[in-house]
Amino acid sequence: MEQNNIIIRVANSGDVHYAKTITDEMESSAKARGTGIAKRSPDYVANKMEEGKAVIALTTDGTWVGFCYIETWSHGEYVANSGLIVSPEFRKSGVAKGIKKRIFDLSREKYPNAKLFGLTTGLAVMKINSELGYEPVTYSELTQDDSFWAGCKSCVNYDILMSKDRKNCMCTAMLYDPKDHYEPQETKEYFEKKSKIYERLLRLKQSKFLQAFRKKSKDENGGGGNPTKTKSFFHFFNF
């Protein structure tokens, strides 16, 4: 796939020299947003490229533009398209949508019977997912594979996830079930109708007030505070 002199294709072993650039941008982007993603090493990303389980976007002169990779869980029953990242100078160009479409197609080619899912803190990614046929779901509909959730340990919001017994966190869960799903046009239209609601919820989740509340609650609970206060507050963010 090529758009505006940007090539979007399946990554291969010849792309491993981009791995450090990709993981550095993943980390800096997460810090800038004030939210967390599961941290990945350059070796991990390079391995995904070598396995043909990643999509990369490059300019025609070889400048790195964007990236995303495939992970499998529960013996291939679930597939996640993870680590979507676009270089800052190429954001809002439509390249993220192109990458998501290509990694979605690659996942369906490699794992036609798997449920595709994702966790995201971004409204833009939710919009792209909805155009592919993903639906917002509760965390209980995702893989319960411990190794998947262990990957969240490097996320700054891991304490929230564990305080909710892995039932909710700052991210929104989305799922595409090949055996039971709406058509992409239907999920797209639904998202457009509900986008303002999702936007407000995401802003509440990611607000500085929430960060301050987490610290306050931790201090209060450690000093004999009321733990039910924290529970009722986070229950407000359930989808």
From TrEMBL:
Gene3D superfamilies per record: 3.40.630.30
InterPro entries: Acyl_CoA_acyltransferase (IPR016181)
UniProt xrefs under CDD domains: NAT_SF
Protein's recorded name: GNAT family N-acetyltransferase
